Predict the structure.
Amino acid sequence: MVTMTEAVGPRLEDLARQDVPVAAWCQACGHHKVLPAGPLLERLDRRTAVAAVARRLSCSACGSRRIETRPHYAGLGVVAGHRWHGE
Ligand SMILES: [Zn+2]
């Protein structure tokens, strides 16, 4: 019953409950960042869809707003061959 659009999917409150951070990356330069859900909840509505968090972000490396966000479930980064870091 899950449709993969930006309007649905896990919300910030879901990640906070599961202690799962948000993975964000820049489509312009490939910069990766892992954001704890806690601080995001202080800035955004807790019902904000994780995919929609990207609209509030810009890249700290190149300034691009072409950001994508998704839940950073443990192990996914390794499976995908990425080295995630939380700088
Ligand atoms: Zn960038």
Observations:
- The longest strand covers residues 22-26.
- Residues 12-18 form the longest helix (7 residues).
